[in-house]
Backbone:
C-alpha cells in the first residue's frame, strides 16, 4: 500500500557572519511539490536598517512574519528612541512563532544583523526556538548547502569571500534540490545599513 505525503514548499536559505556584518541569501524558486509556481519569489526581507530575515517555507507565512516583526521593531525604536538589537528581533519573532504553535507558521527563519555588539546570526524553527550561530542554512537544500558552508567558513571573512561562499553553497544545493533554483537574492548588512543584490544562475 502506498503512503501519500503532503507537498511542502522547498527552498535553500543561507546566512553567514563575516568580519563587518552578515549576509542573508535565498534562491528564488517557489515550488509546491512538482509544480513551480514562481521563478521570482522573494524570501529575504529587510526588518530594520540593520536587521534582516531570510526564510524557507510557505511564502505567505514568511511575509506576515516579517511584516509583524518589522512593525514591532519600529514600535520599539519609537518608544525607546534607539535601534532594536538583533537578538531582540530574534526574540520577538520567536514569540510570534510560539504564540501560533497550535497552528504554526510553516517557515524556518534565519535572522541576521549588526548592532553595537557586532554582527549576529540566529536560526528559528516554526515553533520559535532560537539558536545563535556563525553560519546556517535552512530549507530542503540545507543539507547540501551546510556541507559547503562548513568546508569554507572561517572567522574574519571579508565581504567578497562571504558572498562567494554563500553563492557556492546555494548553487550546490540548487544543482541537487529540485525545489530550489532560478537565481538568488542577497541582503548584505553592515554598520552602514543594508544592501540588496540579485544574481542569476547560468
Residues:
Amino acid at each position: 500500500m502506498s503512503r501519500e505525503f503532503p507537498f511542502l514548499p522547498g527552498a535553500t536559505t543561507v546566512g553567514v557572519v563575516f568580519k563587518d556584518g552578515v549576509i542573508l541569501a535565498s534562491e528564488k524558486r517557489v515550488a509546491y511539490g512538482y509544480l513551480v509556481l514562481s521563478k521570482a519569489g522573494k524570501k529575504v526581507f529587510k526588518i530594520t536598517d540593520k536587521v534582516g530575515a531570510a526564510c524557507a517555507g510557505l511564502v505567505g507565512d514568511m511575509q506576515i512574519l516579517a511584516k509583524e516583526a518589522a512593525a514591532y521593531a519600529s514600535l520599539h525604536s519609537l518608544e525607546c528612541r534607539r535601534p532594536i538589537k538583533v537578538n531582540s528581533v530574534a526574540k520577538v519573532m520567536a514569540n510570534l512563532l510560539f504564540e501560533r504553535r497550535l497552528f504554526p507558521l510553516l517557515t524556518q527563519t534565519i535572522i541576521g544583523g549588526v548592532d553595537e555588539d557586532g554582527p549576529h546570526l540566529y536560526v528559528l524553527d516554526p515553533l520559535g526556538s532560537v539558536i545563535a550561530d556563525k553560519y546556517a542554512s535552512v530549507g530542503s537544500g540545507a543539507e547540501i548547502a551546510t556541507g559547503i558552508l562548513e568546508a569554507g567558513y572561517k572567522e574574519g571573512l571579508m565581504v567578497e569571500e562571504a558572498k562567494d561562499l554563500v553563492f557556492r553553497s546555494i548553487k550546490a544545493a540548487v544543482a541537487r534540490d529540485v525545489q530550489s533554483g532560478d537565481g538568488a537574492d542577497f541582503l548584505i548588512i553592515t554598520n552602514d545599513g543594508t544592501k540588496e543584490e540579485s544574481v542569476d544562475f547560468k
The domain at 12-199 is CATH 3.60.20.10 (Glutamine Phosphoribosylpyrophosphate, subunit 1, domain 1). The chain has one domain: 12-199. The two ends are 42 Å apart (CA to CA). The chain is about 30% helix and 35% strand.
